[in-house]
Fold these 4 entries.
Entry 1:
Amino acid sequence: MAEPAFRVSLLTKHFGGVQALTDVSLEVAPGEFRAIIGPNGAGKSTFFNTITGLHQPDRGEVFFEGRRITGAAPYTLARNGIGRTFQITSIFRDLSVLENLQVALLAHARRSWSAWAPARSAMVSDARPLLELVGLKGTDARVAGTLSHGDQKRLELAIALAGKPRLLLLDEPTAGMAAQERLESIRLVHRIARELGLTVIFTEHDMAVVFAVASVISVLHQGKVLAEGAPQDVRAMPLVQQVYLGESVGDSADASTEGRSP
Amino acid sequence: MNRSAAIGLALLLASALPFLVSHFWVFILVEVLAFALYAVSFNVLLGYGGMLSFGHAAFFGIGGYTVAILTKKAALGMPLAFVCAPIVSALAAVVIGYFSVRRAGIYFAMLTFAFQMLLYTLALKATELTGGDDGITGLKAATAIAHPVAYYFFALIVVSAALYALHRLVESPFGYTLRALRGNPRRVEYIGVDVRSHQFAAFIITGAFAGLAGALFAVSSGNVFPSWLNWTASATPIVMAVLGGIHTFIGPVVGAAVYVMLEVVISGQTEYWPLILGTIIVILVLLLPEGIMGLWRRKAKAHG
């Protein structure tokens, strides 16, 4: 395999006595659409927060395109080509849709320190195609907080894309959506990632969503990587089925593990 | 009415006013100007950056004391002393901000508050330098602008230029970034912005402008007192900003004008003026949650 786009080596994190991650290692190839799944409490959130600079790992390293980024500040990650979205949609609610993207694009252009030139019409020509890409054409002037939940998710995606990332990290990208909307939403991300040649890592509850788009799946269980492989292989693994309480993983559209104990 | 017409009209009115009223009121108008700048500088932090400083008076006070000490004790000329005021305030903001912007919300407010009380104590105790309880009195403006009307125009020019610069700032990429991090600092981090540095810069810049306002007012009133650094002094820009409306640039200017005028009028009538002023402010804030300018905006919207 060529240089992995993203590599985690022996990542370990505990909170007090709770071992949240134990020696988690994985490699993600360029252009991959990697799903991180696992029952509640498996360590998905901790994993995500640790690779995005919110938590410092106790041990282990994180590499992006061969460069060590362990524990780097979030703004450093963003500047180096890593974009992310949040489980709870994170946009600038009291700014207009256009301003949301202007702020992100200005930041990417390292112009956030410019304190004299007017920003009103800055970056508009870069913002418009992004809005069109995520399906928010014509919503420029709307106050972002008044958009529907689904549109807010789209806007958040556009904000993340404004930084021209090469790696996109999506934490539960379909959280809070209706079943049909989830598939539409993840397919949009999938299509855009393909078009732009992005590597994507996402955590997800909904197996239908995972199996619709993932190229490789990593299963976390009790803070460890339990299994990893192509979707059909992972689905067939007895160990994985056991973790999911004997259910045939991915059989039904709503095989969500939400609310189930590991 | 478009914006430039409104600004032109306001400047015209502001230029005519001192010829229409007594010197006492010219003095009050200077106070309005100084506090307008003070309140706007405060509101760039609160209304745009979402940072509630409870120690903004530190910089207003330092501005005032800098002019007073440099002219009275160091025998520096007034123009130079005046230039030094915002610089010294900015330096103080570097020190205070360095520690304060590490925390958000109420902890930020408390840290700024603590630093200001430290300065208050210093102003009271460092008698040699600050005159202690008695403050420093007998400040005079440079001869060229010694006349009240001349000083008024000096203040008008300084405040107009300062407000222009601050307006450029809030409409700039830096200002947009401040507005974004007001509601969602974490998201701002993840678009590649070092949030704390931007907050730190905003703190220093607004501190400098507050210092300029303090210097203007000190020379106008001819004295500085330690009470300028007391905690109640930090409530003043908060009340002015909220009264005028924190979600518009011009709101705090309106708030400052209303506040100062009310104070002058009511204190001329009764010694219980703080009681009356407080009551009026409570009523205004309850009736106009978005401030006076909020009402203006609603009206403007309703009429298309």
Entry 2:
Amino acid sequence: MAKKAMSRSDRLFEWGIDAFLVGVLVVTLVPMWYVAMVSLLPFGKSPSLLLPPWEWSFAAYAQLIFQPTIWRAALNSLLLTFGGVLISLTLTVLAAYPLSRRELPGRGFIVGLILFTFLFNAGLIPTFLVVKDLGLLNTYWSVLLNGAVSVYNLLVMKTFFQSLPESLEEAARIDGANDWQVLRHVVLPLSRPILLTIGLFYGVANWNNFFEPILFLSDRSLMPLPVVLRDILTGLNVAEYVEGGAAQAAPAEALKMAAVVLITLPMLLVYPWIQRYFTKGVLIGSVKE
Amino acid sequence: MNPAYPSKPAPQWRQSLKHLARSVWRHRVLYLMLLPGLLYFLIFRYWPLWNAQIAFRDFQPTLGVWGSPWVGLQHFLEFFNSYYFSQLLVNTLVISVAKIALGIPPAILLAIALHETSRRFLSRAVQTMSYLPHFLSWVIVYGILLAMLSPSEGLINSGLRALGLEPVPFLTSTATFQPVVVLSEVWKETGWSAILFLAALLSINPALYEAAAIDGASRWQQVRHISLPGIVDVLVLVVLLKIGSILDAGFHQIFVLYSLPVYSVGDIIDTWVYRQGIQNFQFSLATAVGLFKGVIGLVLIVVANRLARRFVGTGLY
């Protein structure tokens, strides 16, 4: 905004606004900073916000990084995240495209059928019984399939397809392309931003998912990172994750917080992309007919 | 057609049926594409609906859904007459309402501050950092909360001890658990919730601010008379949407944060359903409670949508 001669009240206003923003920044960052500080805590020191760098100890990280349990959980997480995105995006695109075509007979009915599941949920137990009856308990298919399609994402994608100029598809059809070819060669190349956005939506949800693995999986070796982190934090199985005399190498609270940092890092690495596409995504997400 | 014969109804519907069949056949590739998604919804969303009938049966896994004996409303009555009914409902509503009441004002304030500040760098930094917690799993936030609130080495309790006060077991005390749930949600989601309000502010015609400034309106008056009216529609929409899902008090969050000592204040409908159903194998009772919640939720969201259409002119779906 233009800086003109400001009245005193306006200066006060600007000062108040900026102070509030700095306050938000502090409240957001201090807890995360403190987690990092505790993770670097050496023995015999009490945690502090201002642990000087020459006292930092990376023993907790060294401990965790060599734990096979952590590596297996990381692989499990990667598998669930990327496998899930692949399945979810495929199903979402394949359903969204036909439903974006206004002339499709029965389209309104099918959209209604899908929308109803958005409004009414049969609940946890009936869904659990389906997964059980399908014999999917304790397999990754339970986690991958149960939450595969989000109605919200489906409707966002459908809205996007509807916004594409029809003349392009029309031209391809006149050239003899069938619907499948139109989707592959005309629609999808134009949809990269929305595919990335929705893919990230699914990816973040999968990476953070801890409840469905707990609900459907019983084999501990199948558990992804968030479940392992929860076990470490509740202190149930610290001994399992930190073998032998290793527990003496770093204080327990440093181990816990180092685990928090390690599991947050991948998210921080992709965060610039997430931020770019999510903020766009939340605004195109006007899910309306 | 021959005008001598008045057209009879039969050929006409037969013709339109033929027309429809031809149209369906012409779009067969599209239906084929729809098939996997449709199967997904039928299996994972409609089959559970069928299974939900065990709310009215006494489900025994060996007999299956269809073979278990009917008991009518027994499970519902048991739930309504139990002591935990009011407790669950109160916990769910208190936590939900507090999240709405304490969550929306900071989000509006943040959006207005981001919109008003003349420091671009500060604005960008705050946006980047305040959206971040939204993308963290509740398990990670639980770790952060432990670092802040743990009675032994948590930052806040170190502060209390430095002031000569007794440390407070925030996560395991019935007096503090609900505030922790509500405030941690506010910490995690304020930045993200501000986006919608910020978008509404950015869509206000800048000429309004310029005209007001020329007329001598102070910055605060501009916020009061231009910015706030500009976000009322979004505010109404957000509040209605939240009321529509008021029975969702944050299952994943509470599932991670709560523990036996705070069940009396932290147990919500969803966490109770999980424990009774999955851990205690009370499938029918848990399904009945889940169904009760689903039906109320459906009514609420439909009413909220009607209201949104009437007052804002646009619905939630």
Entry 3:
Amino acid sequence: MGRKLFALIFLTFKEGVRDRALVGVGLFSLAMMGGSVMVVNFFMRELHKVSVDINLSAIAFAGLLLTFFVSLNLMSKDMDKHTIYCVLSKPFSRTQYIWGKYLGIMFLIFIAFCILTLCSTATIFFIKSQYEVYFKEFSWLEFYKAIYAQFLMFFILNAFIVFYSTITTSSFITLLFSISTYIAGQTIEEVVLFLQSSQAMEMVMSKTIGSIIGIVQYVLPNLSVFDLKVRSAHALPISFEYLSAITFYCLIYSSVLLISSSLIFNRRELK
Amino acid sequence: MIDISIKNISKIYVSDFKCKKKTAVQNLSLEIEPGEIFGIIGRNGAGKSTTLKMIMGFITPDSGQIFISGKIPADPDSRCKIGYLPENPYFYDNLTARELLTFSCQASGLDQKTSNQRIELLLKQVGLFAEQNQKLRTYSKGMTQRAGICFALVHDPDIVILDEPMSGLDPMGRKMVIDLILDLKKRGKTVLFCSHILNDVERICDRVAIMDQANLKGIYTKEQILENHGMEELFLKIVQQNELQAK
């Protein structure tokens, strides 16, 4: 059972790691990080904030490109081109298929994050050695905590890709749903906070929309809790309690999505 | 024990938006004995591939039952000893044939030594040994079909299900597939396959089922086929009779 699942995880990883899109994503993020060495020269102060912000943004952007192009391709192509037959003709249950594919994708994202973290560490290290005076408040620990939080967000986002792939028949619809979920997940907290603010209280809003937003805020993931770029750039301490809470939130949310995906996929007809 | 037992299965496809219904398979029953080569022939849309997909558990029948060595298709263990080649197989582009076959062996629980032996043997048999480390996206249709045949056979299954195995193959490739199927029979394996190439079906099958418009029209032994002046004659007779009845 373990060996079989490992074979599927490794198959997914291998197929993903050789995707040509990965080269583009890698080059783009490395260029962004390398560019940050030049860009910080244009700023006269707070260079550490600029370099941390650019590097964390590059990692997040690379993660998003990986998710929306490589991960989505790994899931949807199986359905579109029927490569799924070659996996399911072996003694895999559909639940094992879902988990094997997801873990393979997450392994790919993990390796990508490790490489990007190494590159951004080198970039910041170089900038720090050039402008030591601006990096007095900088903390490597907070920087890595922010990268960890970003990585957690991709657990949820990729679980959504798997979930949407099981309910749709088109990769385009999966892409559309996933991007919408990402945007909504990033902004839902701001929308809710705005509606609770005194400015919004003066607005006339239909009760239906209010209650829809009320439901949506609990159904959609709050992805903004994983965005710790600003805190890290300002070297504000991120508590381990907070990290534990978002880890727990991520694991629960992803597990619920994957269990739902398995239940739906077990009933799906693979024509 | 009977290797594959199909009892009164039916399947109706419902289109997503218009809710239009189309009967793919109607009340089909058949039994395939161990060590038998069983062919299913029929026109396009007769229900051949749907039947094979139901046996593999990709599609669930609306009614009826399927047993593979006593197990239902929903049970992953039912596929432990099955090798399957889909119609127009498509594999992972970025993998090599060797990697694909290694996955097939690992998923089927073969140890590494046996896997390597089986992979080499089959790659040589289908003529892909020299191209084993090329990515599958560089393969032609015929080469992909050969890789698919290896994928289905590499774990030495007891039951082999092939959907249009000759599709996309040149005459040499067709001969190779026929030799492989006959070799499987010699080794006591059960083979179930669909094909449009009636000469090949007549040559290698012990029994042939003819399907038309979602229904089984009959199961014929080699002798019965010969009595009816060959497979082509028999098939055309049955299809024409069916068309006349429909009118």
Entry 4:
Amino acid sequence: MPKQFALLSLILVAALMLAACVGAAPAAEAPAEEAPMEEAPADMSGKVVIASGATIRIGGSFALTGPIPDPGLNIRHGAEIAIDDLNAAGGLEGFMFELVAEDGACDGTQGTNVGNKFAADETIVAVTGGTCSGETFGLLPILLEARIPFVSPSATNPDITSADCDVCNRVALSDSLQGVFSADFVVEDLGITKVAVIHDNSDYGKGLAEIFQNHILALGGEVSSFEGVQVGDTDFRALLAKVGADGPAGIYFGGYSTEAGLIAQQMSETPGLEDAMFMSDDGAYTQQYLDAAGAAGEGTYVAFLAGDDSEEMNADFDAKYLEKYGVAADELGPFHAQSYDSVKLIAAALAEVATVDDSGNLVVDREALISAIRTVDAFDGLTGTIKCDSIGECGAGGVQVFEVMDGAFSQVKGFGME
Amino acid sequence: MANSPLNVQAAKIDGQTAQKYLIRALGAAIFLLVAWRVITVGLAEGYPASFWISQALNGLVLGGVYALVALGYTLVYGILFMINFAHGEVMMIGGIAGFFTLQFALARGWMEGPWLVVVAALLFIMLVGMAASVVIGVALERLAYRPLRQAPRLVPLISAIGASLFLQYSVLLIFGVSPHSYRKPELISGGLRLGDVFISYTGAIIFVTSVLLMLALFFIIQRTKLGRAMRAVAEDRSTASLMGVDVNAVIVVTFVLGSALAGAAGVMLGFHNTVVKFNSGFVPGLKAFTAAVLGGIGNIPGAMFGALVLGLIESMGPSALGIPTEYKDVIAFSLLVLILIFRPSGLFGEVLSEKKA
């Protein structure tokens, strides 16, 4: 009996495989036969051809899971509103835009997965994202190889843009500004010279913490300890006891909301650190930080890379956001305006290089698009005048410092206050 | 073996003893290296005594949480000889249920009431968390483990890992990916400051409650009829069933007890660290498993002791060894590897009967 079963199942498997081959073969051949007929005349390599009636597909890598899901969703919303606005204005040459959103999870490995997905999809013209620096470092080499330009709304690690990467752009401001500004604030405005620096071992948090540390040292300050934690840790008491033993007057944390909030909260339970200053970064400029820190959040500082807002445009955007998603634009997190501008920047570059061929297809040359993003005329975005420099820094605005007062962020220094 | 010539057997034994001594020598060398590092680096830092006391207190709190979870691993292993890798998630479910009960209590203003009301509300939250964990734990047993009870031992293990992922991502889909923040009532916020040592109320509650729960468990197992049935099933399942013990009922009770302890740990950890989310049971679950192995898996006092040792090592280890605190997990899991190499049956090393081994 078992032998017969074995034989039977073997035959069944063989039959299935045969069926699969037979079934798959025509499907695989069909496009190959058709494609040369349509595209034979011109060399189509390095070009995206969008058939008449199809959409212009822009990839989006957003941190929808991972340590900062709310800000990730908020950034996705910003991009979706930009797509809506572009389409409401008639699209491009009658072609509508479409956002292909993927979850980059704020993580390098997942960023690589998303990058591979976009690179394998020939219809993706450009990418907005990723949300986090680590995620963007995962995307970067794959998109560079595939010649797909990206504009990140929120990845702030300085090394994301460089002279070696022509597809790398961002609307966010580099952490080299934020780290230096924060160190200046701590030393000059608060008069604190002995600080401990903690980071979360992410590309973003650690990179920022190093910039901050270097500038503290350059200002003649003292860094009593430089320690790392893991994204997702919730108990920092052992670390804080160790950090507190060196008696710093303040702690700077490079990382994301939850860890920042918990460190602020647990500092208030650590002898020697009860009255120490706590400062964090744009990753902690969220409601989640305020929730996690609770009462201990009062009097702590966070920095943010703010855009040069135009109030009228922002009011319009905020109204659309509230109408579409039922929450206020600021509720889930920052960077929605940068996300909107990222998509708008891509669209502006596309408008310069896209052409309609004889058969009514929209043709985009990949190399032309890559250089167009850098050379496109300055335009007024939600975050100010968007114009890329030669290495892909396109953002406007400056660094702001906020103090938590009565459970809300209130600006105490920086951009927009002078 | 009985048929092999005597001299071959003797040579084999010689080889085994040589290997045993080699392993012991290696163990001693590692121990000496660690001790040397602690004396030359850790103690040379010159931390004050209050620092070590603070770290030890942090370690005891961690250890209390690990102990409650480790008991669940060890109870189930003692009876079914399987590792319930979804046990960390059972704890997380308790924390999530506790969070929503806390929201319910906050909305009704119970947390601002007189202290008696607050204490009653906190107990209620803990009971709801424990109940939720029990429901999930029993469901796991019924759906994921019982159908596989006669299968090879690897199969329920894989089922447990699948159940762990299923629970994590179900919670992610249902309750969202964002962390849920517990809001501590005024009564248990803050703590006592004794000189340079700070004892947080939540930490003290965790330690005292876990000791009480462990004593209760010990009483149930050693002094009640139910406990005797559990011990009988652990000893020999088929003989116990011949003696009239309802094995299925005993296994369910085991899961109920283990899950209730994990649920209590989940809620208390929620109040202590104030954040729970879908994967917040994973790492504590692994640590508790390490603690259970450290004490000798299947051995109940061993799990309690192993958990406290692990908690202390994790909080004092990095400072004592003079390495960054971010390596605390490396220390914990290196300990697991070392224990598995040098003392596979754990610190409390009971010699496993042929059936268990």
